[in-house]
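Budget justification aside, the reviewers requested a transparent look at the raw inputs and outputs of the sequence design task funded under Objective 1. We therefore reproduce one unedited record. The lines immediately below are the structure tokens for a 162-residue chain.
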């Protein structure tokens, strides 16, 4: 078995769509980034890459690469899920937390799980928690959103080819 940890944060700005866990969330601001800036998907991706021992998200999807400009992070996640299979592992469990003051994200958790499972993460193998930062720091001031993820990968007997 392998474990991995991932963290990500993005700035909230006007004029961007807010996408978290593959779900479009109605809000006056969105997250700034080269791709769709999906903070939860990025934290999950980094945890999975970490569990494989293959570096980090920036090495796999450089923000200087035009291919990833405004890219859907669910598509990036699909690449990583495939990489996991190629390396002879499967996702056993992912736990995650999103930290934001606003908007309220609990109504979107089930939709996020569904969207994330479209990347190939087994459905029922992911937990998402949401919490505020009690008004403290950059999150408390509504300047950005952060996410943490931990994953467990399990070795598979038969390696599935690309
Ligand atoms: Mg990111």
């Amino acid at each position: 078995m392998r474990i991995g940890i991932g963290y990500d944060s993005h700035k909230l700005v006007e004029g961007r769509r807010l996408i978290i866990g593959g779900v479009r969330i109605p809000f006056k601001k969105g997250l700034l980034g080269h791709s769709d800036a999906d903070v939860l998907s990025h934290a999950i991706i980094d945890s999975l890459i970490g569990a494989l021992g293959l570096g980090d998200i920036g090495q796999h999807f450089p923000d200087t690469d035009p291919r990833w400009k405004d890219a859907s992070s669910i598509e990036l996640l699909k690449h990583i899920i495939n990489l996991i299979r190629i390396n002879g592992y499967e996702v056993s469990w992912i736990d995650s937390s999103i930290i934001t003051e606003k908007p309220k994200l609990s109504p979107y958790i089930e939709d996020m799980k569904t969207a994330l499972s479209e990347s190939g993460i087994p459905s029922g193998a992911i937990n998402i928690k949401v919490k505020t930062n009690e008004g403290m720091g950059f999150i408390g001031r509504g300047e950005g959103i952060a996410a943490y993820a931990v994953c467990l990968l399990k070795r598979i007997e038969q390696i599935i080819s690309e």
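The longest strand covers residues 2-14. The chain has a mean pLDDT of 94. Computational costs for records of this kind are itemized in the attached budget.
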